[in-house]
Design the sequence.
């Protein structure tokens, strides 16, 4: 059975599409999906779309229509945890929706009907993704010439809680508020993005293994809009490609 590789951004997907053996483009639910093999492993490549609903539709299509066995999600995120810096990589341990608020009917952040706020990623698949991420970041400069900027520390891999919500967090004030509120309830968030928690929820509903990795593109502050496109092309998409290929070897 196939592994779905879900990308948040076209730049990340295009290098994988270029490597596909026997590529077959299929349109479904108004989206393009690519079937084929990467290093002899059957895969379906898809773009998540932006935001939780778009990502949930894509994940559901991957499961219902393409019958994938697992979903691996790559993308970028804003770093909010201490020491989670641009160029670092975060492998998600679990997800929370930072904009879920059905209070006072349910506790803040609890997913109504799930009796919990946090959804775990699959431990076994995540362990393999973490291995792939560590190997990729450690070998980035020798294997594909990616170096941290002069005077900056080497990129690091983090593992922990990631928050998703339908907002691009682009002020230091908002980022600090979001982090402090979640921390006050015991949720120590490393990074923020806009889709992963939705895919985690769909995978939980269908009982499918899910793992996610995000390269930190910004610090979710006033400079977050920065040179996003350049970062994605030069850093995030190369990490994504190498991590996906390294992970597929382990499956
Ligand atoms: N993805 C990358 N950076 C982000 C940010 N600052 N907020 C939400 N999603 C992001």
Sequence:
């Amino acid at each position: 059975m196939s592994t779905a590789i879900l990308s948040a951004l076209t730049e990340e997907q295009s290098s994988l599409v270029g490597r596909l053996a026997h590529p077959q483009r299929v349109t479904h639910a108004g989206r393009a999906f690519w079937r084929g093999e990467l290093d002899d492993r059957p895969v379906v490549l898809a773009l998540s779309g932006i935001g939780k609903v778009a990502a949930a539709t894509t994940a559901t299509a991957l499961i219902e229509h393409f019958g994938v066995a697992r979903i691996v999600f790559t993308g970028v995120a804003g770093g909010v945890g201490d020491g989670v810096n641009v160029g670092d990589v975060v492998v998600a341990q679990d997800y929370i929706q930072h904009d879920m608020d059905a209070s006072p009917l349910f506790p803040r952040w609890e997913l109504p009907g799930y009796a919990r706020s946090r959804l775990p990623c699959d431990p076994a698949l995540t362990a393999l993704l973490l291995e792939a991420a560590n190997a990729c970041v450690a070998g980035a400069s020798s294997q594909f010439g990616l170096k941290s900027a002069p005077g900056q520390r080497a990129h690091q891999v983090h593992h922990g809680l990631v928050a998703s919500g339908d907002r691009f967090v682009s002020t230091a004030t908002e980022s600090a508020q979001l982090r402090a509120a979640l921390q006050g309830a015991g949720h120590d968030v490393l990074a923020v993005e806009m889709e992963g928690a939705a895919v985690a929820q769909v995978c939980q509903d269908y009982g499918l293994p899910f793992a996610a990795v995000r390269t930190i593109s910004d610090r979710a502050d006033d400079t977050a809009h920065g040179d996003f496109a350049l970062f994605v092309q030069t850093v995030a998409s190369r990490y994504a490609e190498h991590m996906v290929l390294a992970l597929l070897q382990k499956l």
User: Anything to note?
Assistant: The mean pLDDT is 94. The longest helix spans residues 228-250. Residues 76-78, 168-170, 192-194, 217-218, 220, 224 surround adenine (CB under 6 Å). Strands lie at 3-7, 21-28, 31-38, 41-47, 70-79, 89-97, 118-120, 157-164, 189-193, 210-218.
